[in-house]
Amino acid sequence: MLSFALVSKNSNPFGREKVKCSIMEDSVEVILQHKSCELSRHTEEKPLVTAASGAFLAGVYGLWTLFALPGFRKVPICLKVPYLPSSRTQTQNVMKLLRGRAGCLADLGSGDGRLVFAATAKGFHCTGFEINSILTGYARVKSNWKGIPSSTASFVNQDFWKTDLSKYNNVTVFLAPGVMEVLGRKLEKELPDEARVIACRFPFPDWTPTATEGEGLDQTWAYDMNVIRKLSTQAAMK
Ligand SMILES: C[S@@+](CC[C@H](N)C(=O)[O-])C[C@H]1O[C@@H](n2cnc3c(N)ncnc32)[C@H](O)[C@@H]1O
């Protein structure tokens, strides 16, 4: 009886709950619709964003490989050094360590030629050795454009490991930590006693520098061959 009374009072015992439910369902639907709209808008926008960022990254990588990789195959893997240009401060630090000096200068791995151009401006006769033919070509074009005679600055597309460096009394290097020890041995064998070697960012592990300029990533070190040889002889005698 009781249950009948309740039923008759509300005409439908679950009516109110149904209304509540249908309101909730409607709101959920509205939320879902809103979300799906947002989602479809995002998925419409996302391919464009993804494609654009993909194209940008591919472009950057393409440019990097274009400039960094040619010539790489010719060098043993343990001696490979990628292209990374010197900063302005680093270049200035190199020039400070070359103050008062003159003559022939070799930049081992000359990149776009910036160290060579800075040194020619101070009166050095420079040769940039660069294994990457595109960078060598770029430096040559820039040199012509600057009106620098080839007797003052020349760029050679050549592996410096296979080059005799005995005629250079100034050598600049911005390479990689892994090659410095091997390079030190080569320079010690070939360079004249009066030669000065400037190392950028990575010092020679076995050599004692005569002077240093700057700090952090821009630090440069100067090594004088006569001092290096003297110290090597002393160490060998001990
Ligand atoms: C870190 S970058 C320095 C570029 C430039 N000297 C500067 O300071 O902006 C090193 C350069 O050395 C070149 N390189 C590496 N190994 C070489 C090799 N065996 N002979 C000639 N160049 C080399 C690379 O192609 C790269 O351009």
What low-confidence regions span 5 or more consecutive residues with pLDDT below 50?
1-21
Largest sheet: 7 strands, mixed
Helix content: 40-55%
Rg on CA atoms, Å: 34 Å
CATH architecture of the largest domain: 3-Layer(aba) Sandwich
Determine the mean pLDDT. Answer: 84
Structural class: alpha/beta
Do you know the CATH topology of the largest domain? Answer: Rossmann fold
The geometry reads as globular
**The CATH class of the largest domain:** Alpha Beta
Spell out the CATH superfamily of the largest domain.
Vaccinia Virus protein VP39
What is the helix tally? 7
How far apart the termini lie comes to 117 Å
Biggest sheet: strands side by side, in what order?
3-2-1-4-5-7-6
Our count of domains comes out at 2
Question: What string gives the helices and strands in order?
Answer: HHHEHEHEEHEEEH
Write the layout of secondary structure elements.
Layout: H1 2-10, H2 15-68, H3 88-97, E1 104-108, H4 114-120, E2 125-129, H5 133-146, E3 153-156, E4 170-173, H6 177-190, E5 196-200, E6 211-213, E7 220-224, H7 225-237
Parallel strand pairs: 1-2, 1-4, 2-3, 4-5
Antiparallel strand pairs: 5-7, 6-7
The protein binds S-adenosylmethionine.
Residues 75, 81, 83-86, 107, 109-111, 114-115, 129-132, 135, 159-161, 174-175 line the site of S-adenosylmethionine.
Please explain how this structure is put together:
- This protein has helices spanning 2-10, 15-68, 88-97, 114-120, 133-146, 177-190, 225-237, and strands at residues 104-108, 125-129, 153-156, 170-173, 196-200, 211-213, 220-224.
- With 238 residues, the protein is an alpha/beta fold.
- The protein has two domains: 2-66; 79-237, Vaccinia Virus protein VP39 (Rossmann fold).
- The chain has a seven-stranded mixed beta sheet.
- Helix 6 (177-190) links the parallel strand 4 (170-173) and strand 5 (196-200).
- The longest helix is centred in the N-terminal third of the chain and has 54 residues, at 15-68.
- It is globular, with a radius of gyration of 34 Å.
- Mean pLDDT is 84; it is low at 1-21.
- The structure holds S-adenosylmethionine.
